[in-house]
Amino acid sequence: xxxxxxxxxxxxxxxxxxxxxxxxxxxxxxxxxxxxxxxxxxxxxxxxxxxxxxxxxxxxxxxxxxxxxxxxxxxxxxxxxxxxxxxxxxxxxxxxxxxxxxxxxxxxxxxxxxxxxxxxxxxxxxxxxxxxxxxxxxxxxxxxxxxxxxxxxxxxxxxxxxxxxxxxxxxxxxxxxxxxxxxxxxxxxxxxxxxxxxxxxxxxxxxxxxxxxxxxxxxxxxxxxxxxxxxxxxxxxxxxxxxxxxxxxxxxxxxxxxxxxxxxxxxxxxxxxxxxxxxxxxxxxxxxxxxxxxxxxxxxxxxxxxxxxxxxxxxxxxxxxxxxxxxxxxxxxxxxxxxxxxxxxxxxxxxxxxxxxxxxxxxxxxxxxxxxxxxxxxxxxxxxxxxxxxxxxxxxxxxxxxxxxxxxxxxxxxxxxxxxxxxxxxxxxxxxxxxxxxxxxxxxxxxxxxxxxxxxxxxxxxxxxxxxxxxxxx
Length: 474
Prior knowledge:
Elements: H1 2-14, E1 17-21, H2 25-37, E2 41-45, H3 48-57, E3 62-66, E4 68-69, E5 72-73, H4 74-84, E6 89-94, H5 99-107, E7 112-115, H6 120-151, H7 162-174, E8 181-184, H8 191-200, E9 209-213, H9 219-227, E10 228-229, E11 241-242, H10 244-247, E12 252-256, H11 263-275, E13 277-278, E14 287-288, E15 292-297, H12 301-306, H13 312-318, E16 321-324, H14 335-350, E17 356-357, H15 359-367, H16 373-387, E18 392-393, H17 400-403, H18 407-412, H19 428-446, H20 451-458, H21 462-471
Parallel strand pairs: 1-2, 1-3, 3-6, 6-7, 8-15, 8-16, 9-12, 12-15, 17-18
Antiparallel strand pairs: 4-5, 10-11, 13-14
Helix pairs in contact: 3-4, 14-16, 15-19, 19-20, 20-21
């Protein structure tokens, strides 16, 4: 029984969604029956205002509208539809054709113009059939693109470590579902990339993927962004505006920094997730929304719940499927892969002849803790490519926080065996301390963090290694 329900939902999602607009109810009923028999999803609206409300609340593949109607024209509806749903196929029909009207319709963006003669129903069926076939191929192309991403590493997510392979497996498992996902991890780990991969590998891949940073808006503005508003709802609301839930209808809404949302907005979000309806500010009507919500945060929400800063009921609504993205220091084996990827990216864009990264520089990259994670690594490689004048990234162009050497001391070091001391002299203790730190980092990286092995590589005692590690805050 459950499998039958799932299959039914999938069939409904794949059917072409049509809106028929005409002030003649009998004609609307005729076209509704005709297109439903052909296997399409059909809704009708008896006039322009009713059609506007339908368009604001749902996404339609095809809109079929009469031109002359009380309360507005099909041309006005066409311009409105192209603003909020530019990808919809728009077909205008009229019983009183004239050349000027046809030209206006095509100039306004109409895809087809049909005259209501004895054969107009068949003309409409042929047009709808052609569009449906085109949509089917687009969906097939989307499936092939998703399959290619699956085989080539899921878009821009780069990693071969066991933890990242587990993330890839999880994405493949949860993507076909409609369950909500809560992605946790430090800033810069790539939480949005994971959310996009889930969307792109789902049946919603051809529908909108909308993002919002919940921490970037005050409460009142966040509410209007998410739920929309009606003209006159507040000062400055000069027109109706769809919220992001409506914009993401049929697709995915990625809510980043969900842990920064205040308690009042948490209550409103919980209600939307529970009921699947939104009420724009200033409206008395609730609109149905079909949106998959993927949330992300760098906060520990369980601690926030204990502190009374996050609602427990919302947490369980959001975290049906939790995914934790590991920090870069938890998957150091991916650092060389990422570093070379960014090197290739920036050397091409900057047209530099750099061919690789020196072993010393790579050792420093692998040893550094990367508090800013992948984003910080990307910025570091971009800076190194910009500064490097040789054929490979050297340690001297890495920032001080990575190689532990100040610019003054770095200038005093030579890559040759001969020691060069500048005229102004050097800070000897800083040179020695910098050298100690670099060798400690390299040894620890080579020993995979095992201190006893690192001590053996440096030919010092374990106690000495602990002393140096404490001294250099490693």
